[in-house]
Amino acid sequence: MNIQRKYSLPNCTLLLEGLSDVTRAAQFQEMRPELSILVNAECYLSGYNQPLTGGREFFESLVRAVSGYAQEFLSSVPNPQAHNQESELVEFQKVDSNRHRLIIHSEGASEGFESHSNNSKRPPIEIDLNTVQLFDLVEAVDQFFADSQTLPELSLELQPVTRRYGGASPALIRQAVPAAVGVSTLAVAAIAFNLIPPPQMRPPQPKPDEQTSSTTKSITPPVSAAPTPIAAATPTPTPTPTANAKPAVKDLEALLNTVSEITDPSQLRALNRQVYNQIHPAWTNRSGLNEELIYRLGVAADGAIVGYKAVNKEANLRVGQTPLPNLLYNPANRAPISNEPIAQFRVVFNTKGVLEVSPWRGYASTPEVLGAKITDSNIVKGLNQKLYSTVRQTWSGTPTFTRDLKYRVAVNKDGVIADYEPLNQVAFDYFRETPLPKMFNAIYGSNVAAPNNKEPLAHFQVIFKPSGKLEVTPWQGYQQ
User: Would you call 335 exposed, middle or buried from its count of C-beta atoms within 10 A (0-12, 13-18, 19+)?
Assistant: First the structure.
């Protein structure tokens, strides 16, 4: 289930979006659900119209940098954790006594991305905070750590600085506490002067070795805090103290290491259609793309989109302009993905507004149509003539297309249309100029309904020519 958690202060608000393990949620329906998988984090700061946004890597880096810098600010002892730009996305720099610079670095050409230039790294985002804003941010982080039902495995690890290096007195703690009072804030202040040992704010609680599935919701705001390249519904093993614990699954590729992959060409062909039929009508805004957006999709055997991963940098930045975040399966409406086999597809939103879907690894051999088939030559001949007459009578008007529209059309023993499939791109683009969707919709209530494969079908190739000529011939198979 999708969950939001909000931690608000006058000058700062943290908004976390994620999912809970539905199997655990079912056992504790009366309790506040646990947000165990972080999908999106947003940090709203007063004076700025747009939030800083990113995934789990961004949020964890923000938490570490905020805690480290607060310790440094209170103690006047440099803390490398606040300025580690080599391995952290977020760092802080002190500008003056009342101004603190928050810097968010880009990951640049991360693994899984295609760099098209020698200088693929975006410039960092810099935001100046006053001290009140800083401590409101610290307090928002404190509220998060005090919430045991949000990312319970994430703990605050602070290292003490030696008392003799401290440049401030305990009186400064008393001055700072009113700006932000809370567990982690007090811990930061105390550790800054080595008054108490580093606390284990919220130690990870051992849980059974299990995997959960999640639906991600990716948002691409005008100000992006270097979002992670992965926005996928991936199983995330819960931490466990046993020696046989499985490694955490971090992305779609790692998910495929835990489940089998669907490679059967015929099944891939059928799933390819389902993926296209989900994305095509949902992609409503097809303008404004200066570069192709390319994604790698994971799809379950029933056609549910369980994850996606940006292949190029632009795809990561503009995922909000695609329908993918809204098409991921909802665990509340479907059994969780566990050990189900996954098919992979390449999805391209191109600059001309054309959607392209194809198997990630292509077809190993020529696919076949699934399901039982009518093979009696006399019956097939009669159904061929009946289909031709039906389509010919309902196809009218002057074609606007300039190339042949090719379709596979299946009918049952009574000649009733049971399935149809475009075979070339122009057939996708101009399908409304054919009677096929109206015929299909009249029977099934949708022109993208699942095919009727509960009875044997006869398959035909139907070609609508720009000249107005119609051709219907028995199906000979897909052409590779």
Answer: middle
